[in-house]
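look at this fold:
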Amino acid sequence: MQADIIIIIIFIFIIIITVKHSEKRDRKKRRRTGSPSEPSEPSEPSEPSEPAAELNSSCVSFHYDGIQMTTPAF
């Protein structure tokens, strides 16, 4: 019974550490690319523009009206 509780606590710590590490990595990536930490909302909704794709070494980023979606490149 106590072993189950200890295992659950260990998994919770692993999840917390993983989330914190990914947040830190995202902040470093934002700082390196020069993106703002919090994107500002446009005052007026604009017409949808054509989506642009740029190829990175490990992922493909799609930009559509200020929204960036990243998918792994295969």
In short: Strands lie at 52-55, 59-64, 67-72. Residues 2-37+50-72 form one domain. The two ends are 45 Å apart (CA to CA). Helices lie at 2-33.
